[in-house]
Structure formats: C-alpha cells, structure tokens
Flagellar biosynthesis protein FlgC (Salipaludibacillus keqinensis), 275 residues
Amino acid sequence: MLRGLYAAGSGMIAQQRRQEMLSNNLSNINTPGHKGDQSSLRAFPNMLIQAMGTDHPRSHGTNRVGELSTGVYMQEQTPNFRQGDMQETDNTTDVALLQGLVPTDEETGEDAMLVYETLNNDGDLRYTRNGNFTVDGQGFLTSSQGHYILGIDGEPINVQNDQIRVDSNGEIFSTVDEELLGQINVAVVTDPTQLVKEGEGFLRYEGENDVFTAVDNEDVTYQLQQGFIERSNVDASQTVTEMMTALRAFEANQKVLQAYDQSMERAVNDIGRIG
C-alpha cells in the first residue's frame, strides 16, 4: 500500500513541476525572443514482484507475479529553440534575426542557433535572441535591460542616437550622413542544448564547442530585419491545453492518494477495533 502512496505522490510532484514550467512559458508569451521550455516525463524502473512462501511455484522454478510500476518523474526541462514569428514595430532600434542555413551538430543532431552577443552588468559575455534594442545616454546600442550589444570587433557599438539604418548584414549607418557606425555581431552556437537561461531573455553558454561568428561565414546564412522583433515561440492555445491536462493528471493522482489515505485510516482504526 505504501508503494501506491509513493507512486501517486511522485505523479503529483511531476505534474506540479510541469505546471510551473508551462505557467512560466505562458507568462513570457509577450517577451521578444523568448524560447519556451518543454518537459520529458519518465517512469522510474519497474520492480519485479515474486510470491513468497507458496508451495506451487510457476514455470522455471520461480513464483513470479509480475512487474510493479514505481512512479514517474520529470526527467529534464529543455528549451525549444524554434524561431518565433516576426512582429513589425517600426522602431529603428528593433532588429529581428532571421535564421537561415546553419550547421548541424553531428553528435546531438541539433541545428546551430544564431544569437546576439551582449555584455551583462558584470561584464560577462551573454547571448540573446531579443532584438528589442535601445540607445543609452552615452549613445551605445543596448538591450532593453541596458546590456551592451557587441559588434564584430567584440566591443560595444556607439551609434550616437536612434537615427540609424541597419542593413541585412547588421551594418549600422547613420541616416544623417550615411556614416558606417559599426556592425552587429551574430554568433553561431553549434550546440544550443548547452545554453542556460538566466532570465530577461539572456543565455549563458556552458558547452565545450567554440562559439564563432556568422559574419562573412560561407557555411551560415542569416538576415537582420530592422523595425521588427522576434516574438516568443510559445503557442498560447497549446500551452493552456497542456496546463489543463497537467491539472487533470494532478487531480487524478490526488484522488488516488486520498483513497489510500482512507484505506490506511480504516486499517488502523477499524481492524484494530474488531480484533
């Protein structure tokens, strides 16, 4: 009976964690460049049940009864790096990154991911798909959180003001005198599964493969589109449906747990009174 309690309890925990993940996806549906998470549920190894103290063993000299499931757990939570839809904003500092042909990792089978390079407040290198840029008080091109956007030279880009034009290769020109102000660097992450979310749309790379630039790279094709941003790739209707499914699964396990609790209460109180 206790095994049934553990199985129902593990199912509730797994669905609760899945519900938290889906709620986070839904809360970021309007976050530009956000990549929704997806979960993998897996069952614990089954236990082989054998009868003890019987006089008539079954075939092969064993008293095998069968297998017993020991519950389920959420094995991992991985981002879905599928590109989101493009949304027009007409803001000169908004730039959407359209991913074209990219190399595929031979070991993981995952397509590479193109990202912008940024410097966070601690001066550490981070990556993002959020092209909702702005210009700070010193004239530098930054993310909406104030992190510097890096150019192909690895340095922050000073554009002076928002009177700029960005071509498809990421070169930035002043609309006043057509002066070349810099070029946005687009980085290639060959193993995107090693990107770790840090919040606010920023990613930290913990892989062993080198991150290289896509600029002037014959093996990579991409395009930047000014006045657009990449929307979150979270599907609202599908996410709500999955949340309802997770809630029903949680409630079903909860009812099983309550049934076991009532059975144990009767075993403790009623059987003891009858004896």
In short: Helices lie at 2-27, 236-274.
